[in-house]
């Protein structure tokens, strides 16, 4: 993530809007150096004033600070609608992090910050955004709107998600995904943040719900949020540990190194099955490692928006 070290030390809770802004600014700056540099023009908010142009849109505040004339850029209104869905079940609160900042995130912290950054981009382009949060119940729903008041309301709710109870919340995501699908009537981009862990193992029910989200020609992107080091590669200290299911309370004691190889093989197989199912149902599948993939979320948004707008 191309954001300064000083930002990393800012706590996520109560500073979500600031950090989302910093993440987006760093991302946009990085676009100039990346294969996606062409997209950066979408976010140009000022341009150098040329002699003979109307002075109507000169930003005098910027002039006072820089002694240079810039005019404000106004992007055309668009009709893009985006709905963000966040899985807030107990497994999403792994690993335990006492004080979250950009360098220290658990899965829910990563998802909330990524959602806030996406909201920042959507706001810049005057697009409408909605939000749903579910765990063992449908916690929150807000329809797609583009107002400043709506934006603030969603940010406040995301901060509440960070502070929500993290233990004992089982999830049956298919139940709430069906309900969310029924609420989104106009064609939208739908971004789902989930670790794909569920109390029940019926994958058919889950993918039926994901297919329901595709109804009305919505574009669906599944961000598979994971702590790749621990949840895929099973990298733990070579000492006996107790592994506890945070949703059911079930536990097992073992040496991680004795099971690392077989564990990694089985989990890799499961993740590959998810990716293949998503491809079958034309759902965009993105692995999102909480240690490094914030920019991947924003890049995916840019690419999918280009496709969606065609």
Automatic annotation (TrEMBL):
SUPFAM superfamilies: vWA-like. Residues 47-267 form the DUF58 domain. InterPro entries: DUF58, vWFA_dom_sf. This is DUF58 domain-containing protein.
């Amino acid at each position: 993530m191309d954001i300064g070290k000083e930002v990393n030390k800012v706590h996520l809770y109560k500073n979500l809007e600031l950090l989302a802004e910093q993440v987006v600014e760093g991302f946009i700056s990085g676009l100039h150096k990346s294969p996606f540099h062409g997209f950066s023009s979408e976010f140009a908010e000022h341009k150098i004033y040329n002699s003979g142009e109307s002075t109507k849109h000169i930003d005098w505040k910027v002039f006072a600070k820089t002694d240079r004339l810039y005019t404000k850029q106004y992007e055309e209104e668009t009709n893009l609608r985006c709905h963000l869905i966040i899985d807030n079940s107990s497994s999403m609160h792994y690993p335990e992090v006492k004080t979250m900042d950009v360098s220290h995130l658990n899965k829910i912290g990563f998802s909330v910050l990524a959602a806030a950054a996406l909201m920042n981009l959507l706001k810049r382009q005057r697009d409408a955004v909605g939000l749903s949060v579910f765990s063992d119940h449908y916690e929150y729903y807000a329809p797609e709107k583009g107002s400043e008041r709506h934006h603030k309301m969603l940010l406040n709710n995301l901060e509440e998600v960070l502070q929500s109870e993290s233990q004992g919340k089982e999830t049956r995501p298919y139940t709430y995904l069906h309900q969310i699908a029924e609420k989104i009537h106009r064609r939208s981009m739908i971004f789902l943040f989930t670790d794909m862990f569920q109390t029940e193992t019926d994958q058919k029910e889950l993918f039926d719900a994901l297919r329901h989200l595709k109804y009305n020609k919505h574009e669906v992107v599944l961000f598979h949020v994971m702590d790749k080091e621990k949840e895929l590669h099973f990298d733990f200290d070579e000492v006996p540990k107790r592994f506890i299911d945070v949703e059911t309370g079930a536990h097992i004691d073992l040496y991680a190194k004795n099971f690392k190889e077989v564990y990694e093989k089985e989990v890799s197989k499961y993740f590959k099955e998810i990716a293949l199912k998503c491809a079958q149902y034309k759902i965009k599948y993105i692995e999102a490692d909480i240690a490094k993939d914030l920019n991947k979320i924003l890049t995916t948004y840019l690419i999918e928006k280009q496709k969606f707008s065609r």
